[in-house]
Design brief:
Layout lengths: L2 H13 L1 E2 L8 E2 L12 H6 L5 H7 L13 H15 L4 E2 L1 H9 L5 H15 L4 E2 L23 H14 L4 H8 L3 H10 L12
Parallel strand pairs: 3-4
Antiparallel strand pairs: 1-2
């Protein structure tokens, strides 16, 4: 939204009053504003894309939603919720749940909804299996090319990238790297890799 438009809306946001084009008569309106942004509002203000006054008007209450790949424990419960909403008889099997958890979800919740909807529409099975999910697991390692550990000088970076891609799921990370879970633990300790406690899963 252009800064010039933001300035015009400030009075409406603050007073709940507006005037129609060509009229000086003030009219009252009762409304609520719900807005979203993929960019930090502070950054937008610093870059001159948002005025401080406008930011203060729309930020009465702020909620932060991390990307789905950073909240791995929410993926299966959310998928199950969407699935039950579409068809209460359908269930996800263990392998399908695992596939959902290791996928990085670049499209976040919208993509998850779409994947579940397609699985229900395209397949009549009561049990949803990995092959019913229209996602490519290869996407997990696109940004960490050749995750097999060969060169010791690159191991630390590869381990960190793999952990991030898998939402810090250590078992899944070990699978992608082609090493045992015990070996992964040793390397994490060896390289002093810090793992957020709230994200340690499995």
């Amino acid at each position: 939204m252009p800064v010039s438009v933001q300035d015009l809306l400030i009075e409406v946001l603050e007073t709940g009053e507006y005037s129609r084009i060509g009229s000086s008569k003030k009219r009252s309106i009762d409304f609520k504003v719900v807005s979203t942004s993929a960019t930090s509002l502070d950054t937008l203000v610093e870059n001159g894309q948002m005025t401080q006054a406008f930011r203060d008007c729309i930020c009465e209450d702020v909620l932060f939603f991390p990307p789905l790949r950073e909240t791995v424990t929410d993926i299966v419960p959310m998928a199950t919720f969407f699935l039950q909403h579409l068809d209460k008889k359908r269930r996800l099997n263990k392998d399908a749940k695992h596939k959902l958890e290791v996928y990085p979800w670049p499209g976040n919740v919208r993509e998850l909804v779409r994947v579940i909807e397609l699985a229900v529409k395209k397949f009549g099975d009561d049990i949803i299996r990995p092959e019913h999910l229209s996602i490519a697991i290869e996407s997990v390692s696109e940004n960490v090319s050749d995750m097999r550990l060969n060169d010791e000088t690159e191991e630390r970076d590869k381990i960190i990238k793999a952990l991030e891609s898998c939402g810090y799921r250590r078992e899944t990370t070990a699978d992608i790297l082609g090493i045992s879970r015990r070996n992964l633990f040793q390397k994490i300790k060896q390289y002093g890799i810090e793992i957020p406690k709230r994200r340690i899963i499995g």
